[in-house]
Specification:
Layout (H helix, E strand, L loop, with lengths): L6 H20 L2 E4 L3 H24 L30 H7 L3 H12 L7 E6 L4 H14 L2 E7 L14 H10 L7 E5 L15 H11 L3 E3 L4 H16 L5 E5 L3 H4 L3 H4 L4 E3 L12 H8 L4 E4 L2 H7 L19 E4 L2 H20 L3
Parallel strand pairs: 2-3, 2-6, 3-4, 4-5, 6-8
Antiparallel strand pairs: 1-9, 7-8
Length: about 350
């Protein structure tokens, strides 16, 4: 059966629809996120942590180059060292040092409705130490239990200084009373998580020395799937079951896997996957996805920042509480309902009056 609607009333409904778009858009106002207080606390904790690490780095005699790190965070490493594994984007590295990313992690954790004491599995390479710090600050404020497995290898301008890896950074922050010691295991990183094909001779030996000196469980397994399985075992043992969420920072091989599907993954909070690859070496992201554990994927920093109202490569870094990540857009409900009623009325009237 055909439904006949008067063209005149149908056009009037379209007019109301177009008017609704513009008028309701004008009613938009920016209001504080429901998690604003925790977001602000996490960002301030990250800012304090960065200040502590910057001072500590200089006390070690490791110069901070203002041409590379204009905000003097101390979290931007040299381009090429024995720890450098791959190319890296300097703008992305500097963008990641914004404490607003701690606020973003709070937002993600709150959206998952995590509760005090929930275990948060974190897998990170040395490529984005600031994002790892952001995750830990969010956990600290929300009283979650982070479980970090850290790969020492880093892309350019990450935690590439051999005397200032995240192992050293976290140790200092624990001593300063800013964070808890959440590091549970360390690996070499790089190709297949075994530091193969490094740029400098002796790199693997240096990385092994750093790993062993951490005093944490040292993961060195071949092939890659064995390294993935070992991580799963450690996470489940520490969490006493599956963790509440898995946070991936960077592109460490055991986390990212050896599959083309990983390259096309969206960034941010992932609670559903269109496809999960079968077989070995698919990485912890997909291993946890198959177990029903949500994933927070932090890799494409520019897009992640733009999608969440975080400025790209700002100098100076903004004060916490200003960027878009702390706010949500609110529209007038009465206006929306009024226009919706008028459009429905046009359709009903158009069916009753066919001419």
């Amino acid at each position: 059966n055909r439904i006949h609607i008067s063209l005149k009333w149908l056009l009037l409904g379209v007019v109301f629809g177009v008017a609704a778009f513009f008028i309701v858009s004008l009613s938009m106002e920016r209001i504080e996120s429901p998690h604003f207080s925790a977001q602000l606390s996490a960002a301030r904790l990250m800012a304090s942590s960065i200040a502590e690490l910057s001072t500590f780095r200089e006390s070690l005699g490791i110069e901070i180059d203002p041409s590379v790190d204009p905000n003097l965070t101390g979290l931007i490493g040299p381009e090429f060292t024995e720890l450098t594994t791959t190319l890296g984007n300097l703008q992305a590295k500097r963008t990641s040092t914004n404490p607003d990313f701690a606020a973003l992690l709070v937002k993600y954790f709150e959206e998952l409705d995590l509760k005090r004491g929930d275990p948060v599995a974190i897998g990170a390479s040395g490529s984005f130490p600031a994002l790892l710090l952001a995750a830990l600050c969010a956990c600290e404020v929300l009283e979650l239990e982070p479980l970090v497995i850290y790969s020492i290898g880093a892309s350019e301008h990450g935690a590439t200084h051999p005397e200032f890896t995240f192992v050293m950074m976290l140790k200092r922050l624990v001593e300063a009373g800013l964070l808890k010691d959440s590091l549970i295991a360390v690996s070499l990183g790089g190709n297949y998580d075994t530091a193969s094909g490094m740029f400098f001779p002796g790199a693997r030996e240096l990385m092994t020395e750093i790993a062993l000196s951490s005093g944490k469980t040292f993961i060195y397994e071949e092939p890659l799937q064995a390294s993935i399985d070992k991580r799963l075992e450690i996470y489940f043992q520490e969490a006493e079951g599956p963790p509440s969420v898995f946070v991936n920072v960077g592109g460490a091989a055991p986390n990212f896997g050896n599959t083309l599907l990983a390259i096309s993954l969206d960034n941010g909070l992932l609670t559903a996957f269109s496809s999960i690859p079968e077989g070995d070496e698919r990485g912890l992201i997909f291993e946890f996805a198959e177990l029903g554990v949500p994933v927070i994927h932090l890799l494409n920093i520019r897009d992640l920042a733009m999608e969440n109202g975080i400025p790209i490569d700002p100098v100076p870094l903004p004060e916490p509480g200003i960027s878009g990540v702390y706010f949500v857009d609110s529209y007038s409900l009465p206006l929306t309902l009024t226009f919706l009623f008028l459009m429905i009325l046009c359709v009903v009237a158009g069916r009753m009056i066919k001419k």
